[in-house]
Amino acid sequence: MAITYYFNFQSFIFPLLLVLLSTHSSATSTSITDRFTQCLNNKADPAFPISEQLYTPGHSSFPPVLQAYIRNLRFNESTTPKPILIITALHPSHIQAAVVCAKTHRLLMKTRSGGHDYEGLSYVTNSNQPFFVVDMFNLRSINVSIKHETAWIQAGATLGEVYYRIAEKSNSHAFPAGVCPTVGVGGHISGGGYGNLMRKYGLTVDNVVDAQLIDVNGKLLNRKSMGEDLFWAITGGGGVSFGVVVAYKIKLVRVPTTVTVFYVQRTSEQNLSTIAHRWIRVADKLDNNLFLRMTFNVINNSNGEKTILGLFPTLYLGNSTALVTLLNKDFPELGIQISDCIEMSWIESVLFYTNFSIGTPTTALLSRTPQTLNPFKIKSDYVKNPISKKGFESIFEKMKELENQMLGFSPYGGRMSKISEFAKPFPHRSGNTTKIQYVVNWDELGVEAANRYLNFTRVMYDYMTPFVSKNPREAFLNYRDLDIGFNGHGKNSYVEGMVYGHKYFKETNYKRLTMVKTRVDPTNFFRNEQSIPTQLS
């Protein structure tokens, strides 16, 4: 009996091809890494060897080094693209070598200061190009001069460390920056950071007087050598589009030795919609020494029903008596009493605002461990016209329909309204009463859970369309949001950049940023999915 053998060519060759391609890809990646590493060792300053600062995926410390500054667990999945190398720079020469060698070997460079980019763009890419990360956390020196009321701060320092070092030398000086102490200075300042002193002193970038930047040629520049256009661009336009910011020189501001804080709560059952409507009419017009936020969360009441909890965390640069008098006159609906207020030093108010218990030692600000760590999504909006009481009631109902919704309102006005929208790339000045931050946190890991909660955020954002700015619908660069635009850096990159660029910077500032980009980085070496493109595309 004859036996016929059937040979399935496809079932044999396809798996073989996959194995060969995978092996080739791995070998190619390894060879690229080897050549890149060799270049780094050759180009680095011999006085500052770089070899001990290099971590490849095969290194036992690679996972902990990579994960140490991942602040959004949405980007800590097994499927998340990983860098071929991490450079934990100890000296500017390490960054200079990285730029020169990355250009030679056509590698994509990511720069991470504190890891708080909300879309993970400081350590993740959505392209298929091999990439590496320059981690700045070792470059964290802070030199404070109370005599000159300035400080030089390296990009890898955290805001908490900056505040601590200022308070170490003075109880009447501060710096207007964010409330989260683990945020890295580099990204926070370059994107136009803000905080509780914004209405008194403006943004972080309104108080920056010099900078050190490594450009696309590997040169270390300061404000004078880089020129005013580039200095303008890296103070609010995102430093990673133009080079690597090594340090900023900041101007310290003066604060009273005693400030006042409170953190009151109000619920829907306590006329929250009336309070919210009044807040949005007056918060931007209150005394410049007062910063009164308003946030909304969904909670269950005593009957197990969903309701809205309003929180009003506040900082006042003055004493409690003056604060209560001021609010009873301009915002009586909130019902603030002396018993709600706590007087303390400015540095203690930083801890208070970050939800540390009263009496916590200020050394807590030196910790680089976040108080919470989970997957999240954040979006932003700007409000130009008051939202009615009925409008807030409808917003509250929509929040209750969805899951894990939090909306935060930060008041503008004060100093912010007096600075031109063209002074810095950040254009959201006069005419804006408040900025909205949409926050959705969740605990479940995995892509399926992420997609579900991302959808909740987008639904809430879409619902808010009638209440916020239009043409463009403005957004805050430091609340990075890939939903509002994405750049593939192909032949249409300039037009693609306009989509998000006009929202972050508005038309005039975006155009100026692209002009600076074209001059200082014509080949678009420094790029990410929302960077400033050149005008050559």
Provide key terms for this protein:
FAD, 537 residues, glycoprotein, eight-stranded antiparallel beta sheet, five-stranded antiparallel beta sheet, disordered N terminus, 14 helices, alpha+beta
Description:
The structure is a single chain. The protein is 32% helix and 19% strand. The protein is α+β, with helices and mostly antiparallel strands. A hairpin with a 5-residue loop joins strand 8 and strand 9. It is globular and about 65 Å long.
Note the main sheet: 8 strands, antiparallel
Q: What fraction of residues sit in β-strands?
A: 15-25%
- Report the helical percentage: 25-40%
Catalogue the unreliable spans: 1-27
- SS-based class: alpha+beta
Cα-atom radius of gyration = 25 Å
Number of helices: 14
How would you name the oligomeric state of the polypeptide chains in this document?
Answer: single chain
What characteristic shape results from the CA principal axes? Answer: globular
Write down the overall mean pLDDT.
Answer: 94
> What is the terminal separation in angstroms?
70 Å
Question: What is the count of β-strands?
Answer: 19
